[in-house]
Amino acid sequence: AADLPHLAETDPTAKALGYVEDASKATDPKRVAGDTCANCQFFTNGPGGFGPCQLFPGKAVSAKGWCVSHATKKA
Ligand code: SF4
């Protein structure tokens, strides 16, 4: 998963899901404080604080990011 291009907030799918690289800047009312890609079940940690997300094939999302499809990782 090294060197995947970072998902841009301007990517149409990213926009549709309200993805932001900095979860604290999410304006969507669905965001719950503390929820980030890092604790989402679709995220795999990768280099540099970014990693693949199952919802965005071929792209790396920020561990500190967030989108409306966030689902808390099961313990
Ligand atoms: Fe981040 Fe989860 Fe949304 Fe993927 S599905 S962008 S890991 S919050």
Could you characterize what this model shows?
The protein is built from one helix and two strands, in the order αββ. By secondary structure, the chain is mostly loops. The protein has a two-stranded antiparallel ribbon. Strand 1 (50-52) and strand 2 form a beta hairpin. The longest helix has 5 residues, at 12-16. The chain is globular and about 30 Å long. Iron/sulfur cluster is lined by residues 19, 37, 40, 42-43, 53, 55, 61, 65-67, 69-70. The site of iron/sulfur cluster has 13 residues, from loops.
Topology:
Elements: H1 12-16, E1 50-52, E2 60-62
Antiparallel strand pairs: 1-2
Bound molecules: iron/sulfur cluster.
Largest sheet: 2 strands, antiparallel
Tell me how many strands there are: 2
Low-confidence runs (pLDDT<50, min 5 residues)?
Answer: none
Helix content: under 10%
Radius of gyration: 11 Å
Overall spatial form: globular
Describe this protein with a few key phrases:
little secondary structure; binds iron/sulfur cluster; 75 residues; two-stranded antiparallel sheet
